[in-house]
Design brief:
- The chain contains three helices and no strands.
- The protein is mainly α.
- The radius of gyration is 22 Å and the shape is rod-shaped.
Length: about 130
């Protein structure tokens, strides 16, 4: 196996994985802050803090996975083989990022639903406790 081809593949894969992760995280959590504000009823400090913690977790999981799948054990004996292996590796990582994106959206919507239910329950209890005039 030609080790210089493998190093070239690593030098191509790592920046692409980093850029993809950064792009998805930036987009998701810039827009996710809207959900957090809604979940926490406009309490900006809690919404930003929670969104920031989600973002850190997202980076750790995805960059960790990108590094975990870094190893290329196939024989790279030319440009064509590098492109084929990288397309498989980057394509697989992109699918993983998409799954993580939808999982985070699920968490946002779930948080919104639970928050709304608790809010409605509190309002119902307040209405029961308030005597009618």
């Amino acid at each position: 196996m030609n080790h210089s081809y493998t190093v070239i593949a690593y030098l191509i894969y790592l920046p692409i994985a980093l850029l993809l992760t950064t792009y998805v995280a930036t987009t998701l959590f810039r827009n996710g802050l809207v959900f957090m504000r809604d979940i926490f009823f406009g309490r900006e400090d809690i919404a930003k803090a929670t969104n920031s913690l989600f973002k850190i977790g997202f980076y750790l999981l995805n960059l960790g996975f990108a590094l975990y799948i870094l190893q290329i054990s196939d024989a790279l004996n030319g440009t064509q083989r590098i492109i084929e292996v990288l397309s498989s590796k980057i394509g697989g990582f992109s699918i993983y990022l998409g799954v993580m994106l939808f999982f985070n959206l699920f968490l946002f919507f779930r948080g919104k639903k639970v928050s709304r239910q608790k809010h409605d329950e509190r309002l119902a209890l307040q209405n029961l406790a308030t005597p009618a005039k």
